[in-house]
Fold this protein.
Amino acid sequence: MNYHEQIAALADLLKTCRPAYALTGAGISTESGIPDFRSPGTGLWTKYDPMKTASLTALRRDPARFYELNLTRWTSYRDCRPNNAHLALARLEKLGYLAGVITQNIDGLHIKAGSQRVWEVHGHLRTCRCTKCESVYPFDLLVDLYKSGQNPPLCEKCGGVLRPNVVLFEDRMSDEFFTATQVLSGCQLLIVVGSSLTVYPVAGLPQLARRVVIINRDPTSWDEHAELVIRHSAGQVFTDLMAALGEPLEE
Ligand code: NAD
Protein backbone atom coordinates (compact mmCIF):
# COMPACT_ATOMS: atom_id res chain seq x y z
CA MET A 1 0.00 0.00 0.00
CA ASN A 2 1.40 3.44 -0.82
CA TYR A 3 1.03 6.45 1.50
CA HIS A 4 -2.17 7.78 -0.15
CA GLU A 5 -3.78 4.35 0.04
CA GLN A 6 -2.86 4.19 3.72
CA ILE A 7 -4.56 7.56 4.36
CA ALA A 8 -7.68 6.36 2.51
CA ALA A 9 -7.64 3.11 4.54
CA LEU A 10 -7.38 5.10 7.80
CA ALA A 11 -10.31 7.33 6.74
CA ASP A 12 -12.39 4.21 5.99
CA LEU A 13 -11.52 2.63 9.34
CA LEU A 14 -12.55 5.81 11.16
CA LYS A 15 -15.88 5.85 9.33
CA THR A 16 -16.68 2.21 10.07
CA CYS A 17 -15.30 1.90 13.63
CA ARG A 18 -16.53 5.13 15.15
CA PRO A 19 -15.97 6.18 17.79
CA ALA A 20 -12.29 5.25 18.02
CA TYR A 21 -9.74 6.21 20.67
CA ALA A 22 -6.27 7.68 20.22
CA LEU A 23 -3.22 6.82 22.31
CA THR A 24 -0.48 9.42 21.96
CA GLY A 25 3.17 9.62 22.98
CA ALA A 26 6.01 12.10 22.88
CA GLY A 27 6.28 11.80 19.06
CA ILE A 28 3.03 13.70 18.51
CA SER A 29 4.61 16.77 20.11
CA THR A 30 8.00 16.85 18.35
CA GLU A 31 6.48 19.04 15.61
CA SER A 32 5.49 21.46 18.37
CA GLY A 33 9.18 21.71 19.33
CA ILE A 34 9.29 19.23 22.24
CA PRO A 35 11.93 16.48 21.85
CA ASP A 36 10.77 12.89 22.46
CA PHE A 37 12.80 10.26 24.31
CA ARG A 38 13.78 7.77 21.63
CA SER A 39 13.96 9.36 18.16
CA PRO A 40 17.40 8.45 16.78
CA GLY A 41 19.79 11.41 17.16
CA THR A 42 17.34 13.95 18.64
CA GLY A 43 15.60 12.01 21.45
CA LEU A 44 16.36 13.12 25.02
CA TRP A 45 17.56 9.59 25.75
CA THR A 46 20.61 10.29 23.56
CA LYS A 47 21.67 13.03 26.01
CA TYR A 48 20.79 11.63 29.44
CA ASP A 49 18.90 8.83 31.12
CA PRO A 50 15.43 10.03 32.20
CA MET A 51 15.12 6.96 34.43
CA LYS A 52 17.89 8.45 36.55
CA THR A 53 16.96 12.15 36.32
CA ALA A 54 13.12 12.02 36.37
CA SER A 55 12.66 9.25 38.91
CA LEU A 56 11.32 9.09 42.46
CA THR A 57 14.81 8.08 43.65
CA ALA A 58 16.32 11.19 42.04
CA LEU A 59 13.71 13.43 43.70
CA ARG A 60 14.22 11.85 47.13
CA ARG A 61 18.01 11.63 46.97
CA ASP A 62 18.72 15.19 45.85
CA PRO A 63 15.59 17.31 45.19
CA ALA A 64 17.59 20.45 44.31
CA ARG A 65 19.51 18.54 41.61
CA PHE A 66 16.21 16.99 40.42
CA TYR A 67 14.87 20.50 39.77
CA GLU A 68 18.12 21.70 38.17
CA LEU A 69 17.92 18.79 35.72
CA ASN A 70 14.20 18.93 34.89
CA LEU A 71 12.54 22.27 35.54
CA THR A 72 13.85 24.31 32.60
CA ARG A 73 12.75 21.58 30.20
CA TRP A 74 9.31 21.27 31.78
CA THR A 75 8.65 25.02 31.86
CA SER A 76 9.66 25.28 28.19
CA TYR A 77 6.73 22.94 27.32
CA ARG A 78 4.31 25.60 28.49
CA ASP A 79 5.20 27.98 25.62
CA CYS A 80 4.60 25.32 22.92
CA ARG A 81 1.57 25.31 20.66
CA PRO A 82 -0.47 22.32 19.43
CA ASN A 83 0.36 21.17 15.88
CA ASN A 84 -1.94 19.78 13.18
CA ALA A 85 -2.00 16.30 14.75
CA HIS A 86 -3.31 17.65 18.10
CA LEU A 87 -5.78 19.93 16.30
CA ALA A 88 -7.07 17.11 14.09
CA LEU A 89 -7.65 14.81 17.10
CA ALA A 90 -9.68 17.56 18.80
CA ARG A 91 -11.68 18.08 15.62
CA LEU A 92 -12.26 14.33 15.13
CA GLU A 93 -13.71 14.20 18.64
CA LYS A 94 -16.09 17.09 17.88
CA LEU A 95 -17.17 15.31 14.69
CA GLY A 96 -17.91 12.07 16.57
CA TYR A 97 -15.13 9.98 15.00
CA LEU A 98 -13.16 9.86 18.23
CA ALA A 99 -14.31 9.18 21.79
CA GLY A 100 -11.20 10.57 23.45
CA VAL A 101 -7.41 10.69 23.75
CA ILE A 102 -5.22 8.76 26.15
CA THR A 103 -1.86 10.47 26.32
CA GLN A 104 1.50 9.69 27.88
CA ASN A 105 2.50 13.32 27.43
CA ILE A 106 2.69 15.86 30.22
CA ASP A 107 2.77 18.87 27.89
CA GLY A 108 -0.97 19.63 27.98
CA LEU A 109 -1.13 20.15 24.20
CA HIS A 110 -4.28 18.03 23.66
CA ILE A 111 -6.19 20.23 26.07
CA LYS A 112 -4.74 23.37 24.46
CA ALA A 113 -5.90 22.01 21.09
CA GLY A 114 -9.48 21.68 22.37
CA SER A 115 -9.80 17.93 23.04
CA GLN A 116 -12.50 17.44 25.69
CA ARG A 117 -11.98 13.85 26.84
CA VAL A 118 -8.29 13.45 27.61
CA TRP A 119 -6.72 10.93 30.00
CA GLU A 120 -3.25 12.21 30.90
CA VAL A 121 -1.95 8.93 32.26
CA HIS A 122 1.52 10.31 33.14
CA GLY A 123 0.11 13.48 34.72
CA HIS A 124 0.52 17.12 33.69
CA LEU A 125 2.26 20.39 34.53
CA ARG A 126 -0.72 22.44 35.67
CA THR A 127 -0.39 21.59 39.37
CA CYS A 128 2.14 20.36 41.90
CA ARG A 129 1.75 18.81 45.35
CA CYS A 130 3.56 18.53 48.65
CA THR A 131 5.39 15.25 49.16
CA LYS A 132 4.54 15.41 52.89
CA CYS A 133 1.02 16.82 53.42
CA GLU A 134 -0.29 16.32 49.82
CA SER A 135 -1.51 19.97 49.55
CA VAL A 136 -2.03 20.87 45.90
CA TYR A 137 -0.81 24.16 44.36
CA PRO A 138 -0.59 25.63 40.85
CA PHE A 139 2.61 24.53 39.08
CA ASP A 140 3.40 28.24 38.63
CA LEU A 141 3.98 28.55 42.38
CA LEU A 142 6.69 25.89 42.23
CA VAL A 143 8.33 27.72 39.29
CA ASP A 144 8.14 31.10 41.07
CA LEU A 145 9.72 29.68 44.24
CA TYR A 146 12.53 28.07 42.22
CA LYS A 147 13.14 31.30 40.28
CA SER A 148 13.24 33.31 43.52
CA GLY A 149 16.10 31.06 44.68
CA GLN A 150 14.26 28.46 46.78
CA ASN A 151 15.57 25.14 45.54
CA PRO A 152 14.00 22.74 46.24
CA PRO A 153 10.66 24.58 46.33
CA LEU A 154 8.89 23.94 49.65
CA CYS A 155 5.27 23.69 50.79
CA GLU A 156 4.13 26.89 52.50
CA LYS A 157 1.96 24.91 54.95
CA CYS A 158 4.35 22.21 56.24
CA GLY A 159 7.77 22.82 54.66
CA GLY A 160 7.71 19.54 52.69
CA VAL A 161 9.35 19.35 49.27
CA LEU A 162 6.98 20.15 46.39
CA ARG A 163 6.79 17.83 43.41
CA PRO A 164 5.08 18.15 40.03
CA ASN A 165 1.89 16.17 39.40
CA VAL A 166 3.62 14.02 36.79
CA VAL A 167 4.18 10.29 37.04
CA LEU A 168 7.92 9.82 37.62
CA PHE A 169 9.77 6.58 36.97
CA GLU A 170 9.10 4.33 40.01
CA ASP A 171 5.82 6.16 40.84
CA ARG A 172 2.58 4.23 40.95
CA MET A 173 0.39 4.79 37.89
CA SER A 174 -2.22 7.54 38.01
CA ASP A 175 -5.95 6.95 38.52
CA GLU A 176 -6.34 8.23 34.94
CA PHE A 177 -4.40 5.20 33.74
CA PHE A 178 -6.84 2.83 35.42
CA THR A 179 -9.79 4.75 33.94
CA ALA A 180 -8.12 4.55 30.52
CA THR A 181 -7.86 0.77 30.76
CA GLN A 182 -11.60 0.63 31.48
CA VAL A 183 -12.66 2.91 28.61
CA LEU A 184 -10.39 1.03 26.20
CA SER A 185 -11.68 -2.42 27.05
CA GLY A 186 -13.38 -3.73 23.94
CA CYS A 187 -12.80 -0.54 21.94
CA GLN A 188 -13.26 -1.05 18.20
CA LEU A 189 -10.26 0.95 17.00
CA LEU A 190 -7.20 2.43 18.70
CA ILE A 191 -4.97 4.85 16.80
CA VAL A 192 -1.50 5.02 18.35
CA VAL A 193 0.35 8.22 17.45
CA GLY A 194 4.02 9.02 18.13
CA SER A 195 4.86 6.37 20.69
CA SER A 196 7.62 3.78 20.57
CA LEU A 197 5.36 1.65 22.83
CA THR A 198 8.25 0.72 25.06
CA VAL A 199 7.16 2.36 28.35
CA TYR A 200 5.00 -0.05 30.35
CA PRO A 201 2.27 -0.32 31.45
CA VAL A 202 1.00 2.07 28.73
CA ALA A 203 2.70 -0.05 26.04
CA GLY A 204 0.26 -2.85 26.94
CA LEU A 205 -2.88 -0.78 26.20
CA PRO A 206 -3.15 -1.69 22.47
CA GLN A 207 -3.98 -5.27 23.41
CA LEU A 208 -7.31 -4.03 24.82
CA ALA A 209 -8.49 -2.81 21.40
CA ARG A 210 -9.95 -4.96 18.62
CA ARG A 211 -8.10 -3.13 15.85
CA VAL A 212 -4.95 -1.03 16.07
CA VAL A 213 -3.45 1.58 13.73
CA ILE A 214 0.10 2.83 14.30
CA ILE A 215 1.24 6.26 13.10
CA ASN A 216 4.93 6.55 13.96
CA ARG A 217 8.11 7.59 12.16
CA ASP A 218 10.12 4.61 13.43
CA PRO A 219 9.16 0.96 13.93
CA THR A 220 7.32 0.06 17.16
CA SER A 221 6.94 -3.14 19.13
CA TRP A 222 3.31 -3.38 18.00
CA ASP A 223 3.73 -3.04 14.21
CA GLU A 224 3.33 -6.73 13.38
CA HIS A 225 -0.02 -6.90 15.24
CA ALA A 226 -1.44 -3.68 13.78
CA GLU A 227 -4.04 -3.52 11.03
CA LEU A 228 -2.31 -0.51 9.48
CA VAL A 229 1.13 1.02 10.07
CA ILE A 230 1.85 4.51 8.69
CA ARG A 231 5.54 5.42 9.07
CA HIS A 232 5.32 9.14 8.53
CA SER A 233 5.19 12.45 10.39
CA ALA A 234 2.02 12.71 12.49
CA GLY A 235 1.36 16.34 11.48
CA GLN A 236 1.34 15.39 7.79
CA VAL A 237 -0.73 12.24 8.29
CA PHE A 238 -3.47 14.12 10.15
CA THR A 239 -3.47 17.01 7.67
CA ASP A 240 -3.96 14.48 4.85
CA LEU A 241 -6.50 12.46 6.83
CA MET A 242 -8.72 15.51 7.43
CA ALA A 243 -8.53 16.31 3.70
CA ALA A 244 -9.51 12.71 2.88
CA LEU A 245 -12.49 13.03 5.24
CA GLY A 246 -13.41 16.35 3.61
CA GLU A 247 -13.18 18.18 6.95
CA PRO A 248 -11.23 21.34 7.78
CA LEU A 249 -8.65 21.04 10.58
CA GLU A 250 -10.28 23.77 12.62
CA GLU A 251 -13.86 25.04 12.78
P1 NAD B 1 9.30 7.75 22.72
O1 NAD B 1 10.29 8.86 22.71
O2 NAD B 1 9.70 6.46 23.31
O3 NAD B 1 8.86 7.45 21.22
C1 NAD B 1 8.45 8.49 20.38
C2 NAD B 1 8.20 7.90 19.01
O4 NAD B 1 7.63 8.93 18.23
C3 NAD B 1 9.46 7.43 18.30
O5 NAD B 1 9.33 6.07 17.97
C4 NAD B 1 9.54 8.32 17.05
O6 NAD B 1 9.85 7.57 15.89
C5 NAD B 1 8.15 8.85 16.92
N1 NAD B 1 8.08 10.21 16.38
C6 NAD B 1 8.82 11.29 16.71
N2 NAD B 1 8.39 12.38 16.06
C7 NAD B 1 7.36 11.97 15.29
C8 NAD B 1 6.48 12.64 14.39
N3 NAD B 1 6.58 13.95 14.16
N4 NAD B 1 5.51 11.92 13.78
C9 NAD B 1 5.39 10.57 14.00
N5 NAD B 1 6.19 9.89 14.85
C10 NAD B 1 7.15 10.59 15.50
O7 NAD B 1 7.95 8.32 23.36
P2 NAD B 1 6.85 7.58 24.24
O8 NAD B 1 6.54 6.25 23.70
O9 NAD B 1 5.77 8.59 24.42
O10 NAD B 1 7.56 7.36 25.65
C11 NAD B 1 8.27 8.39 26.23
C12 NAD B 1 7.84 8.76 27.64
O11 NAD B 1 8.38 10.06 27.88
C13 NAD B 1 6.36 8.90 27.81
O12 NAD B 1 6.06 8.29 29.00
C14 NAD B 1 6.10 10.40 27.94
O13 NAD B 1 5.34 10.64 29.11
C15 NAD B 1 7.45 11.03 28.24
N6 NAD B 1 7.74 12.25 27.43
C16 NAD B 1 6.76 13.18 27.24
C17 NAD B 1 7.02 14.29 26.47
C18 NAD B 1 5.90 15.29 26.29
O14 NAD B 1 5.09 15.50 27.19
N7 NAD B 1 5.80 15.90 25.11
C19 NAD B 1 8.27 14.49 25.89
C20 NAD B 1 9.27 13.52 26.13
C21 NAD B 1 8.99 12.38 26.88
User: Anything to note?
Assistant: The two ends are 31 Å apart (CA to CA). Residues 25-27, 29-31, 34, 36-39, 43, 104-107, 122, 194-196, 198-199, 216-218, 233-234 surround nicotinamide-adenine-dinucleotide (CB under 6 Å).
